[in-house]
Design brief:
396 residues; alpha/beta; Aspartate Aminotransferase, domain 1; Aspartate Aminotransferase, domain 2; 2 domains; 3-stranded antiparallel beta sheet; 13 helices; 40% helix; globular; binds glutamic acid
Amino acid sequence: MYQISKRLQNMRYSQTLAMTARARYLKSLGNDIISLSVGEPDFLPPDFILNASKKAIDDGHHYYTPVAGYSKLREVICNKFKRDNNISYSPSQIIVSTGVKQSIINVLLAILNSQDEIIIPAPYWVSYCEMAKLCEANPIIVYTKVENNYKITPEELENAITTRTKAFIFSTPCNPTGSVYSRNELKLLSKVFSKHPNIIIISDEIYEHICYNNEHISIATFPSVYEQTVTLNGLSKSFAMTGWRIGYIGATEWLTQACEKIQGQTTSCANSIAQCAAIAALESSPKSIEYMISAFKKRLDLVVDLLNDIPGFILLNKPQGAFYVFPNVSNFLGKKFNGKKIKNTDDLAIYLLETANVSTVSGTAFGYNNSLRISYAISEDKLENAFKRIKNALKF
Ligand code: GLU
């Protein structure tokens, strides 16, 4: 009798992608679904990037690239890290991968042994825990407080560290809460980490440019933790290129060499055409994508108003970045709507999909039982329509 490995039995399906697949299926049956589940910008990638990829095809970029990525791209990434984040990396400290997801699993496979601990502040992005479990490590979840804007404090971090702690992973701006760590908050966390130089800090900065009022800061800018930090970024969110699957890391050389070893045996390299597009994207000034960021900001303000207009939703924090809101929905739990009992947030997400034709993601995917994640990366018209439907479906 064949059996799935224990490692995989332990891992759950990605709830963001499962919800999106369900919404897509219902749409294919002719249902008018509005998707607020997946974090995917509705813009086209900028023309200059599309033209660079067409040129890459014409120029004959059809073959394997170096495992770590084209050397030109790695140079451009170094310049980008210096220009936007004030971090100095050399090309040998860069690995280009098939999306940030692959960058993360490369790093985790490179550093985690069975039973090692990885600290994950919650609410966390859906795949951190499951990837850690795939590596047979133990995720140590730290439940952050809303009064701290869902950000881990130095004391909470210190208390979670044990002799088994190997890594810490977080995102800023944060998916799903939209919180952004300030320079001072990161400085205080880096003070704790510098007392534990064996802990690898995995800093997911994929929403770097989608940051409204606060400045985005990379924890690797603090010299005391530079050596122990892996800075992750990619093209999906800022350049509206989710399907192109380009992610990259900047890290200390022993770690990039380890990731290169893994990647050489698993995927060979990231897509060659997408790498040429990435050169154009990352050489350009962040000004070229400002129009998308201002649209997201307008949508956030709209969504906050629309949420506040529905009795029962409580938005405890005002997001400062990314394109999600994470309202508390406990007022709806244990109640009946249109004859359906809503026991938990999983039920609520399914109910909204089936009754209002609106897909969202249950907070349980992000380690929180009383919230719902709503992505606002779609047009204002669609958002207004979606919230009208939600309001109708959740009348007390
Ligand atoms: N990162 C996006 C999200 O959280 C894309 C889906 C995924 O890869 O989980 O919705």
